[in-house]
Amino acid sequence: MKKLIIILILGICFTQTYEDVVILKNGSEVHGIIIEQKPNEYIKIQSGKNIFVYQMDEINLIKKELIDEEISNINRTYISFGGGLATKKLWNFGQASVDIGLANNISLYIAAGYPTLIGGGLSILQNRNGNGLIFSAGIGFEPEWEALDILGSFGYQFRVGQSPAFFTIGVSAGIWDVDWYNEFLILPIIDLDFRF
Questions:
Q1: Beta bridge partners of 54
Q2: How far apart are CA 42 and CA 50, in angstroms?
Q3: Nearest to 32 by CA among 44, 16, 21
Q4: Residue 127 has pLDDT above 90, yes or no
Q5: What does residue 112 show for φ and ψ, rounded to 5 degrees?
Q6: DSSP code per residue over 2-29
Q7: How far is 31 from 36, CA to CA, in rounded Å?
Q8: Domains in the chain, please, with CATH?
């Protein structure tokens, strides 16, 4: 029960996402992410796919705001391809997955790869499109060993520049082959995936 409460608290914490807001002297507001700032000269803010540059003398105020969950969930389903020592979702060397958002930064995933042929679970990301903590829990089936695995992982993801690539390091733990071996394993996560 204590573990469930901790997971729920982590989920609530991770669902809060902030954005930068630039309020110009002419009264207009630009919402997005500040990607470059030169003190006392200019800022660059990315809003959607657009990048705007404003001189500091045009700006009245720069602040952060909590993103409205309904707005931030507009494009929350994505496909990813990745691989590594163990991926952050299943005990795979390579896998493809589909994430379907339930709420801001919380999603269900279905994944296929090797050696875990198919699996699924829940993923919670502190920042889906940037650096941040990541937690996932799921089950997978390995036909080669006729094994059903139950596992959870915790790590930190780093976005590689502005590309769709994410590098994750962390740890994964769970029960390998629940029906037969019932062996508890702990594996390091070293994962690179590309999201579309």
A1: 43
A2: 16
A3: 21
A4: no
A5: -135, 140
A6: HHHHHHHHHHHHHT--EEEEEEETTS-E
A7: 15
A8: 17-67 (2.30.30.100), 74-195 (2.40.160)
Give the pair of three-digit tokens for residue 172: 């994964």
Instruction: From 193, 196, 176, select the one nearest 113 (Cα to Cα).
Output: 193
Q: What's the DSSP call for residue 93?
A: S
Do residues 21 and 62 lie in contact, with contact meaning Cβ atoms separated by under 8 Å? yes
Alpha helices in 62-168 (DSSP H): 69-72
Sign, Cα dihedral of 9, 11, 166, 151:
positive
- How large is the average pLDDT for residues 154-164? 90
Strands 106-114 and 29-38: unpaired
Average pLDDT (122-141) is 89
> Each residue of 24-58: pLDDT tens digit?
888 888 888 889 889 899 999 988 778 889 999 99
